[in-house]
Amino acid sequence: MLLTAARSRVTAMKPRKWNWALWAGFVICIAAPFSFLLFFVNFPVTRDFPWVSLLLFGLAAILFILGLRRAYGQSESYRGKIFGPILAVLSIALFALFVFGAFVESRRLPASLDAPRVGQKAPDFELTDTSGKLVKLSELLTGPSNPTSSPAGSSRALKGVLLVFYRGYW
User: Fold this and answer.
1) Of 36, 32, 18, which is closest to residue 91 (Cα–Cα)?
2) How far apart are CA 25 and CA 58, in angstroms?
3) Residues 6 or more apart from 147 whose CB is under 8 A from it?
């Protein structure tokens, strides 16, 4: 009888395990928006829709659920009853801030009143080409054209300029 009471006291005083799922979820939740801002924004496939960051937030949520279930279901074995809800609330706030910034605020760009409309003639401008030489739009339209640009068998050279704008690179 004395031996079983001593054993139960020893097992009751056993230190609780570190709840790694809570802390891993929090670290991934912090890494998700920063990885988007520092790395994934450079690629069009992840910049236009931040699917990698949303997957990271989903992974963090799964780890939080696992950690909170451990903290409350097996509280004698795992820690996290105090830090679990605090980290979860902070992570939810970070997720809400990221979603608001990525899907609401980034779409509220001011309208450019001076931008030419579709079908309007573009104003004359000067830019550097790929070789670093300054080129004016008016020179491209009035100057001699490149003979390789005319169709085969055509005696007259075609003149024109194609302007291509890439989102996020102007």
Assistant:
1) 32
2) 9
3) 157
pLDDT at res. 52: 95
Residues of the chain where predicted confidence (pLDDT) is lower than 70: 1-14, 143-158, 165-170
Which phi and psi angles does 73 have, rounded to 5°?
A: -80, -35
* DSSP 8-state assignment for residue 128: E
In a domain, 151, yes or no: no
For the stretch 79-119, pLDDT in tens is 888 888 999 999 999 999 999 999 998 888 777 777 777 77
Range of the domain at 99: 16-107
Q: Which two tokens stand for residue 160?
A: 């024109």
Is 62 contained in some domain? yes
Degrees (nearest 5) of the Cα angle 42, 43, 44? 125
